[in-house]
């Protein structure tokens, strides 16, 4: 009996030791303060070599210490490595960083135009093969300098992790822009030959924000790069894409204007949650693409004395012109901004198999766009009754 009890106790001891080992996650773990946390990754390609930029988190940029203020200038840690492969460039960074790099908090990927044009497929394959790298976050392109973008300060010196590049969905609630695309979505969708992807383009805005009387350059979006099957179709600035920006299923809120010929002050209207629907119609015996948009409209400024029927008509015509300009601008780059080919492939496959997409897209006119308006009333902050203030 004594021997049996000893065996039981030994088993309990071994079980306890095994549990302790599992709870401590082995002896190879590195404590958090001895790791360099990468939050942004940028890749350029010049002179037949990769240039990899790694933006690291500085804890003073996110944590407030006693006697410290969040509105004080914080450092930005940026590592730059070069090599014939991305792995070679990363090894150069590893050797210089002194401590272990942690890629589990990457939320930002920025590629230069040259990297997109010449090495996009290689870049995606390489990043997808690094098991320690978290492919999560948002993807952007730029024709500027990645180092300048990664080291640009935030207004009020807020953390870089709170920037619009890291939280584009929040900015979209205030003002519409090119819909953001996640790294996972991009990696999956770029393999689909019928999809045209739009990678938002990052630029520096040196004029709008000032600290005291000095300019403070900040990052901003301006148009996008069109990519299909790893091939760069071209880039378009924001202005020709305004129609698409206002009218896509990811848009939450945007402003538009209606200018009358007899009045230089335009009517300002707010568009909420447009619903865009693609379809194919047959006209004169030939299939044609058709785009219909339903919008909710809130009139904001200078609309009180306007004829509502005329206002709606002018607004529809203005929006149709802007949408068609976006379609035409993309079409000139051999790009399909509203993903008509993908719609044709998925829902009208026989037409797609007949290779009719390009002719149908090129034959599309402004008359193939239809807009329906539903006006929504917005309550005033100060209550009114028949034009008079209540007392």
How would you portray this structure in words?
- Strand 13 and strand 14 form a beta hairpin.
- The strands form five sheets. Strands 1, 2, 3, 4, 5 and 6 form a six-stranded mixed β-sheet that branches. Strands 12-13-14-15 form a four-stranded mixed β-sheet.
- Helices cover 30% and strands 32% of the residues.
- The chain contains eleven helices and 17 strands.
- The radius of gyration is 27 Å and the shape is globular.
- With 391 residues, it is an alpha/beta fold.
- The C terminus is likely disordered.
Brief description of this entry?
The protein contains eleven helices and 17 strands. It is an alpha/beta fold and 391 residues long.
Write the layout of secondary structure elements.
Layout: H1 2-23, E1 35-46, E2 49-56, E3 77-83, H2 86-97, E4 100-102, E5 108-112, H3 113-129, E6 138-142, H4 146-151, H5 168-174, H6 183-189, E7 197-205, E8 210-211, E9 214-215, E10 218-228, E11 231-236, H7 242-246, E12 253-260, E13 263-283, E14 286-301, H8 308-331, H9 340-347, H10 349-353, H11 357-362, E15 369-375, E16 384-385, E17 388-389
Parallel strand pairs: 1-4, 1-5, 5-6, 14-15
Antiparallel strand pairs: 1-2, 2-3, 7-10, 8-9, 10-11, 12-13, 13-14, 16-17
């Amino acid at each position: 009996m004594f021997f049996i009890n000893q065996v039981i106790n030994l088993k309990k001891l071994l079980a306890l030791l095994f549990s302790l080992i599992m709870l401590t996650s082995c002896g190879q773990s590195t404590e958090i303060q001895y790791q360099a946390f990468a939050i942004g990754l940028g890749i350029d390609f010049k002179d037949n070599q990769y240039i990899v930029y790694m933006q690291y988190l500085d804890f003073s940029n996110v944590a407030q210490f006693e006697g410290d203020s969040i509105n004080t200038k914080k450092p930005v840690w940026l590592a730059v490595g070069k090599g014939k492969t991305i792995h070679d460039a990363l090894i150069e960074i590893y050797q210089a960083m002194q401590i272990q790099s942690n890629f589990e908090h990457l939320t930002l990927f920025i590629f230069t135009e040259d990297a997109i044009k010449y090495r996009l497929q290689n870049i995606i394959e390489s990043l997808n093969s690094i098991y320690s790298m978290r492919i999560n976050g948002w993807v952007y392109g730029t024709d500027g300098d990645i180092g300048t973008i990664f080291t640009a300060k935030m207004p009020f010196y807020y953390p870089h992790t709170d920037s619009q590049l890291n939280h584009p969905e929040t900015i979209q609630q205030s003002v519409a822009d090119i819909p953001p695309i996640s790294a996972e979505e991009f990696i999956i969708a770029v393999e689909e030959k019928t999809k045209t992807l739009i990678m938002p383009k990052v630029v520096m805005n040196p004029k709008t924000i000032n600290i005291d009387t000095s300019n403070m350059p900040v990052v901003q979006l301006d148009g996008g790069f069109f990519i299909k099957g790893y091939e760069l179709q071209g880039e378009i600035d924001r202005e020709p894409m305004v129609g698409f920006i206002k009218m896509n299923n990811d848009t939450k809120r945007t402003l538009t204007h209606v200018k009358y010929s007899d009045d230089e002050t335009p009517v300002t209207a707010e568009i909420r949650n447009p619903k865009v629907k693609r379809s194919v119609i047959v006209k004169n015996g030939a299939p044609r693409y058709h785009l219909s948009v339903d919008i909710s409209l809130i009139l904001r400024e200078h609309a009180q004395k306007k004829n509502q029927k005329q206002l709606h008509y002018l607004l529809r015509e203005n929006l149709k012109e802007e949408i068609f300009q976006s379609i035409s601008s993309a079409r000139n780059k051999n790009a399909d901004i509203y993903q008509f080919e993908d719609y044709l492939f998925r829902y009208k496959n026989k037409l797609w198999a007949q290779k009719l997409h390009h002719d149908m897209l090129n034959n599309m006119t402004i008359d193939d766009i239809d807009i329906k308006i539903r006006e929504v009333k917005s309550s005033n902050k100060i209550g009114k009754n028949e034009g008079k203030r209540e007392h």
